[in-house]
Design brief:
This protein has helices at about 10-20, 35-40, 50-55, 70-75, 95-105, 150-160, 170-190, 205-215, 220-230, 230-255, 255-279; strands spanning about 1-5, 25-30, 45-50, 60, 85-90, 110-115, 140-145, 165-170. Helix content is about 50%, strand content about 15%. By secondary structure, it is of the alpha/beta class. An eight-stranded mixed beta sheet has the order 3-2-1-4-5-6-7-8, sandwiched between helices.
Length: about 280
């Protein structure tokens, strides 16, 4: 395939490296010209994505901020051939699908399918990109049209790259689940590390501390807009967590060991039950 990538940060550059390693031809563009040059040097792209190249590509991947999707892709789709797929790697899907609907009205001969690789690092930027980033990862597909025939083609493509699973859903469900499995985790970790005790953790911490604080390190410029644009889903999950935490706090303040025991056991049993179903 001939593939175009808009945005050459961690996700875009990692995808480029991986796709080139699998024999595909990849062209990319980034608003930062220094990043573009580096992408060429480290073989994350084969060349710069130009108007002429856009006429040849089979798949256009938008790998930057969701809010900028429509503005960044609007000019590109003007030159793309019939049947080419327009997709993305964004963490919020309702805002992206809204942009895709607008493009579909003007360019109905293209195929629009949102995508979200469930992979990443606590470090951002092209310097941390890796062709192994997506090994065994799940990828979520969110087609603009539920009965889109190209979904099967895109699913086979991602599985051929080494992704472990492909989930197909709608934008509303995607944003609700991501609020819980990703965005909430970053908030919890980011808030947890603000304890004064964190400064003195050396010598007192092990796996639990490392696991819980890993994603406290993040790009605020990236995550704040994602969370605000998904605030209805995320605030609901956060309120539920706060309510649960208040139950534990109440048990501690009243020295209610029986209540605390039940809360801890309920949490443990739920984790065991969920893990057994996932297997």
């Amino acid at each position: 395939m001939v593939i175009g990538i808009i945005g050459l940060g961690l996700m875009g550059a990692s995808a480029g490296k991986l796709m080139i390693s699998k024999g595909h031809t990849v062209y990319g563009v980034d608003h930062d010209k220094a990043v573009q040059s580096k992408a060429l040097r480290i073989k994350a792209i084969d060349g710069i994505l130009t108007v002429q190249i856009l006429k040849e590509i089979d798949l256009l991947i938008y790998a930057a901020y969701p809010r900028d999707f429509l503005a960044s892709t609007r000019d590109c789709v003007l030159y793309m051939k019939d049947g080419a797929i327009v997709t993305d790697f964004c963490g919020d899907k309702r805002i992206v699908l809204e942009g895709m609907r607008k493009l579909e009205k003007r360019y109905p001969n293209l195929v629009y399918i949102g995508a979200h690789p469930m992979a990443g690092k606590e470090y951002s930027g092209i310097e941390h990109s890796s062709a192994r980033l997506f090994d065994g990862a799940s990828i979520i597909l969110v087609p603009l049209l539920p009965d889109c025939a190209a979904v099967s083609k895109l699913k086979d493509f991602y599985l051929s790259l080494g992704f472990g699973d492909v989930v197909v859903t709608d934008a509303d469900n995607h944003d609700g689940m991501i609020a819980f499995t990703s965005q909430l985790c970053h908030i919890v970790s980011n808030a947890y590390i603000k304890s004064d005790s964190a400064i003195r953790h050396a010598g007192y911490s092990a796996g639990s501390y490392k696991d819980l604080t890993r994603v406290a390190r993040l790009s605020a410029d990236m995550w704040a807009p994602l969370m605000i644009d998904n605030r209805d889903k995320l605030s609901g999950e956060l309120e539920n967590l706060i309510n649960n935490l208040n139950d534990y706090l109440s048990a501690l303040k009243t020295a209610d060991e029986q209540k605390l025991n039940k809360l801890l056991k309920d949490g443990n049993d739920r984790k065991v039950s969920i893990d057994s179903k996932v297997k």
